[in-house]
Each structure stands twice: as structure tokens, then as C-alpha cells.
Amino acid sequence: MRIPSWHMWQLLSKLSHAAAAAHSINVTRTGGNAEAARALLHPHTFSTTTMSNRGRGFDRGRGGRGGGGGRGGGSGGGRGSPDTRGRGGPPPSFRGSDRGGGRGFHDRGGPRGRARGGVFMRGQRAEIDRRIADDSDKALVASFASRSSPGSDPMPSRPDFGTDGKEIKLRTNFFPVRVPKGPLYEYDVAITPVAGTAARRVKRRIYQLAEQTTTWQQANMTGRVAHDSSAKLISSLQLPQPLTIKVPYYDEDESGPPQQGGKEYTLTINFIQEIDTSNLMSYLAGQAQFRNYDVLPVIAALNIILASAPGRTGIMVGRNRYFFRSAADPFRLGGGLEAWKGFYSSVRPAYKQLMVNVNVCTTAFYIPGNLARAMTEFRESSFGARMEVFCKGVRVKTTHLGYRKTVKKLVRHTSRTYTFDTPEYGRVNVEEYFKRKYNIRLKHPEMQLVDVGGQKANYLPPELCEILPDQPFRGKLTDEHTASMITVACQPPNVNGEAIVNQGLNHLGLKVAGPELQSFGVSIGPDMAVVPGRILPRPGIGYKSGPASIDDKASWNLRGVKFALGSRLDRWTVLVIKDNTRDEFAGSSDPNLLQVVSGFRNMCNVSGMQVTADPTYATAQLPPKNPSDPIRRAAIETIRNTLLNIKPKPTLLFVMLASTDKAIYEGLKHLCDVFLDVATVCVQSSKIRKSSPQYFANVALKVNMKMGGINHKLDQNSGRWLNSAPTMIVGMDVTHPSPGSAVGTPSIAAVVASIDSSFAQYPASLEIQESKKEMITNLKNMIVDRLKLFQKKNSGKLPERILVYRDGVSEGQFNIVRVEERPQIFEAFRAFGTPKAPYKPKLTIIICGKRHHTRFYPTEEDNAAGDGNPRPGTVVDRGVTAVYDFDFFLQAHGGLQGTTRPTHYYVVHDEIGFRANEIQGLTNSLSYMFSRATKAVSLVSPAYYADIACERGRCYLRKLFHGYVGDGTASGTGSGSAAEQDVIQEAQRLWGGGVSKPGLKDTMFYL
Residue 648: is the preceding peptide bond cis (ω within 30°)? Predict the structure, then answer.
């Protein structure tokens, strides 16, 4: 049903009023709780990272969200900070924060609490690696200036190293790798027949059996080759050609291949190339002729070699992540899942040294046991949790016959409703069949069946299936699971550092070289690299009432300050949501509500806003939760009817949520952003009713920005470069459907851009595009829209400089940004010029990366935060950065829990001509300009805004992201072009015209 826009209220008010009279209109719960930080390569593999100050969350007056799994889910320590009641929070002053709403991860306690933080390897001597201590890397970079090639378009070379700030020494989780002198031999492996080998488990078993064959041993391969258990094999010696290995197949629980009728696979091993490692060393040394040398084949080969040991003893999840039951006792997450500890390793090039990056990570595994019991626990762990997400892909053993199968899907039929023909009993249902055939009386005949068949369906009752051990969970975690995962994963730097050095190197087989590493001549140094870093000075932050006083945690408070530019709010409505919860307000006339609203209005005025009128009030009593309506469409319809009765249309809807029900929050944002064109600010009734000045101040930050105000700005000195010429700062990001989404669900692209000289307001363009496509499809038009608004807000002037921060791009896609997105930006420029007077602003593009495993550990307490993490403003551009290119790591924020993760900034195009000090200082300053916080955030603000805008777009497609298509009850995870086309059409219907109406489209509605 198409939802009417606000200008149709007068037309619809009579109908809505009649509906209200017939049915008490109250509003439902509010929504949204902890959501996983971005997954790295696995949807819920968490590196043990701090809860940083980068929030991405619901606007409930608490600032930001920690995490997100939408992109595949996030890594631990996303972008939100926890509630100040948690560890490390500031005292309850008038302190704004980006704790934004319910998606920050909180310490839920449990048997494995967090250890006390401290400096890793406290008191032990640390000397900067000799390869850079002699400053030879500085001489190399100085030589780049004379190497430019006329007519070429290379990646920007590093212009220099930064010098600003206090010099410090940092350990980093990189270990030196001795590169083999001799050549490596790369082979391709084809497994035939292909049928039945799609599962990684089967291929791994085929290789295990192949290694036991006489042919393998006769080819002298034992201990001299490494492989990925798939299609790639690396050898330290040349293998005979042609080489084929016959493998009679049997499972690990079987004693041997069957006497007859068994499967036999053939491995055909073909020579591909000889890999010369001497070229790699020339590349690492920075020799000019090797700048464009492709290091990936050598890196890939060495990763396969290093994976030989953990590939046998651990369980690989995603890429380069290995989990070990022995690494730590599994932590029960509830809902049939437990958390395992593991380690990540990846070979990385650095100046004059090949390194291996090692880090701690945590992921969810199935708890072995009865499938029916586990499915029920998962469903009951969170409202809306779907059993099909839990059971799809899990490996089980049947209790009645003992065979092993993989669950393909959950079907709609139950043991009582599904009937089939049998030669013994005629047509019977499943319940009757098992009773008569096996004398098994089912305990849960009402439970849906699982399909464990291949091409033909094979339905089984879940209660007759036992989950096999050692299986990672690959579905989407519930918010409750994610919060528990963070409890386990979020450990301080001294604990993580010790785990890496003492456990990680051992489990990964890097401390004592095994036969494969010995045969290749590869060895790993036992000590972390030590690199130089600097602590940048803090920027100056100004309010109308004067400068902010920034503390050592890169935060400040709002006591006694007025916004740099206060907005005006003349017409607003308070909407009370009632959903039968303990802390909700009684209704529009609740005296506690009136007192709270009065206190909040006073806080807004004290902070410099002009809230000139009392609000109007409305109440929405939501219908009870219904398991058949997990996205609560009926509740959102109730809210819609309530809003259509409000006259005149408000400028702002101030929503008192009854709970953290994410379905209500997302549905309300979809309704108001896309269809009703009204700004919304949501708060938790349980929080705001305490009338905390801190909470009031946090909410006021959002209200002021959404109404067009400016909370704070850089002082004249810190903003000097920005204001030296008309400049537009752009943030870009793309978010993708997460595990469990309907197949074909579109990705969502966001482009935000500054429009004022204070670089505070960043309106957004949001669009849907092809599913899982990282590059922005319609970037040209989105940039055109941002330039038009800039022109409108600046008396017809266009920017002379444009600085783009692009979030969410992996290293392998850096050049794709240059090839696909950069030309679209140039096309947008041409739309504003003429052949005689082209518009050619200077453009710089910087990619921001958070999906990495680089961590830094201060070597001295004076240069460390209280928990042992680096201090805010720590920057590193030597030792573990690119040899030729222009990149740096920056930790602008102060961590609150765990081990802080710096952001990796990589310059891929630079017409502005930044020096290192300029771009590092500017990026650090912009990290203090996140408007809904009074602290520096972990990702530069424009990119962070784009990320939040993407998250808002997910609200509009929430139905599809939860796996529902059509009537909202059927799972939409099936594949096929027809099914995917239905998903695309539904996405277009849900998206409508996006946020395109005049009330919101030029505002920061997404905050």
C-alpha cells in the first residue's frame, strides 16, 4: 500500500479520524538494539577491538552505533561508544556523545569478563626497526619527486613523511618474514568429477586423503608443498608433469572406502608459473623500475605456505582466519551458539621487509547437540529470530540411521502436515511413518521439517538430527548474540598483545617452523615490529560562547556553551509510543512527560536554539507483538494513522519510544523519511524520563543539526586550510545486504557533502543499486546534486577544491575507484561548465579503511592512554605503510574498551597536492567535527556521515534485509532470476522516491 505524503493530510484526516474513533490509536514499541560491527570477511568474525567513538546508531539521544553487520557485519569495535555507565565512560557532565542509540555494544558481564588494561610489554626495551631507524625510507621518499612519468596516471606517490606532533615509538602486530631465496613453483589443481565438491569440507577431505596416497609420496610432495585445499598448490621443488592422483573417498568417521560403489576423485596438478622472489625484494626496497610490480602472486603463495600448519589443526573461517577450540574455552552466547577464539594472519609488504600481520579474532560456532532444541533456543533468543537462518547449511548426523547430511533449508511443512506415499503403509504423514517404521514417537510433530536432500528433497524432523561439532555459524547474528560476542572479543591491548605473541604464533605454526616452512626456507621473527609514530596536536573547537576545553580522551562537555549557530523550532509534535512496557509514558497528558518535555525544551534554549512554542502531543497504542508479523507492519500502520491526524504538519516529530524494538524504529524512519517528509528524533522513554541534563544535551545536538543549525566548528587556526579557498568535503559509502537477506536485495549508496564554510552541515544523496556492487553506480548524478546544493547555499559559487573521503573499499578495489568512480566525478564537473569555460575544481580522493588488522601498542606509559591504548591523535606513516604510495594510519579518537583500531587512509588521487602534515592534520581535525558528539570519532566525519546515511537507507528496505518478500511472511532467501526480479521490484516499491521531498532532502535527516 502506498503511504500518502503529508500534503495529503487534509484529504485523509476525516478517514483517519474515523478509524481512530473505532480503534484506540496508540503507538508501538521502538526499535533497535546492538548490531554487529562490520564483518571483516566473515559476517560475525570480531577482531578484538575497542568500542570506538564512531557511532552509527539510532537517534535516541545517545549518539551512535557501534558496529554494523550490514556490510557483512562488522568487526568488533565498530563506530559507537557504549553508554557512559560502562567502563571508561566520562563522568556525568553535560557531555554529548555519539553513543547513538542502542547499537553500541555494552559489557554484559559473563564468566569471561574483560581483563584490566595496561601497556603491552610494559618496561621492556623497544628499539625502532633498523631498516627505518637509519632514515633510509625518508631518502627513498625524497627521490620520488624526480620520478614522475609524463603522460602517465599513477597512484599518487608519497610526497614526504609527517613531522608534526610528539614523536613516539609503537609496537605493532607485524612480524618479520624471511623470504625464500629460491623460486616458488605454482600449480593449478583440478578436481574431477566436480559434482559433490562444492563444499569446502569435501575438498579439504579430498586433499587429506590425497596426502596419504602413494602417488603423493612418490612425487616427493610430503612436507614440500602447501595448498589451499581447493585449486592452488605451491611447491618448493618442480613436480613431475603430467601429475594425477586418484583418491578413493570416504568420510572421517568411516574406516575406509566402501568395497564397491564408492566415490573416487582425481586431482590433476598442472604447472602454472615459477615465482621469482628476488623481484619482491626489489619492490620492497623501493627500486623505481619495480613500482608497478605485481606483488600479489608472491603474497598469495606465501599466505598459502603460512596456512599449511593452521589449516590442519584449526578451522578456517573466511580468509586467513583460523579458530581453535584449544585457544580458549568456548563462551556460551545463548540461542544454540558459542564464541570461539582464533587468530588471523596475512603476509604484508613493508619497506625493506616482508611482514606477517597477526591478530586475535572471535567468531560464533554451533553448539553440538539436538537440532530441534537448538533451533528453538535460537528462535526464542530474540523476537523475529528465524529458525531457517540458524539451520541452513549446518551439518547433522541422524539419530535413527546415523548418516551425515547438510541441512539445505527449513520447509513449511511439519511432521503432521507433510504426507507421502510408501510401499509399506500407503500414504502417511512423517509422524506416522517414523512411529511405524522405526518405532519412534516424535516429541515435536508440530515443528517444521528440514530438507537434507541434494537434488531431490529429503525431509527430516529436526529432533532426529544432531549438530556435528566444530562448525562455524555463517548466518546473521541477532543483536543479543552480537552484544555477547563483544563481551568476549573486546579485550584490552595488553591482553591481546600477549595472546598474539604467546598463543597466536604457536597456534598458527609460526613460532616453530613445521616441515613445509622449513622446506621453503621461510621463518618468522618472534618479536613485534617497532615503528615510529607521532601524537598530533588537538584542533581548536569553537562554540558561540567560546572555545571547548578538550581533555586527554579527545572529548569535551557542553556545560555553559552555546551552539555555534542555534536553529529555530516553531512547530513540533511529541509522539508517545505505548507498547505495554514498564518505562513508557502513560500518554499525552502524563505529568512526567510534560515535565520531561519542558526540561528538554529549556535545555535546547539554553544551548542557543530558539524553541518558541510548546509542542502538540499524540499517542499511539501499538497492537501486541505477533510472531507472524516479525517486522511489525501492523504497529507501523497504527503509527501512520496516528500521524495523519496531526494538524498542522509539524517540522519535527519527537518520538518517545517505549522500548528498543528495532522493527518499530526502522519502520518509523521509513514512514517519516520516505513518505511523510518530516524530521524525526527518537528517544528512549526509559532514558529521557530521568531528566538527565547530559541526555537532554545529547538529544539537543541532533535536533539542532536536523533543523539546520551548527553545533561546533573548528577555530580559525585549525580551519585555516579549509577556508583558504571555496572547498567542498564529500563522504561516500555503500552498504550491502547481510546474511539472511532476500537474494537480490539491492545495495545502498550514500554521498554526503558539506555546504557551508563551517563544514558542519552534510546533506545526503541516497540511492539503491545492484546487489553487492561496491562501486557507486549513479555517482555522477549524486555528485551533481551535491554541487547544485553547494551552489545554492553559496550565492551561486561552486567549490574550487573537492576532497572526497571514500569509505568501505577493500585494498583490491583501490584502482577500481580510480577507473570507475573517478571518471563519474569528472563527468559531474562537466555538467557545470561549458566548452569555453570548463569547470575543473581540484579533486583529491582518499579511501578510508577500517577492515584491517593493524594494531599499535605504545611502548611507554607516558605516551599511552590509561588503558594502554595509543593516545588520541596517534598517527603512523612509516614502517608498516605502503612502500611507494601515500597512506597513513590515524587513531583520532580515544578508545573506551578493548584495543583501539586506527583508520587506514590511502590517497588514490590528489590534484590538491597535499603534503603529509597537511592531510594528516586536516583528517584529524575533521574527526572532531562529528556533530552529534562532543569528542573525536574513529572515522573522519564526512565518511562517517555517509556510513550513517547508508544505515538509514537500510531502514527503508528492512523487510528485505530481514529476508521477507511479498506478504512479509515468506523467506526470500531463494535464488533464481524470477525470484530475484520480485525482490528488485519490491525494493523499488519500498524505496519509493527515496528522501526526495522538500522537507528533508536538503537536511541531515539521517543523523
Answer: yes
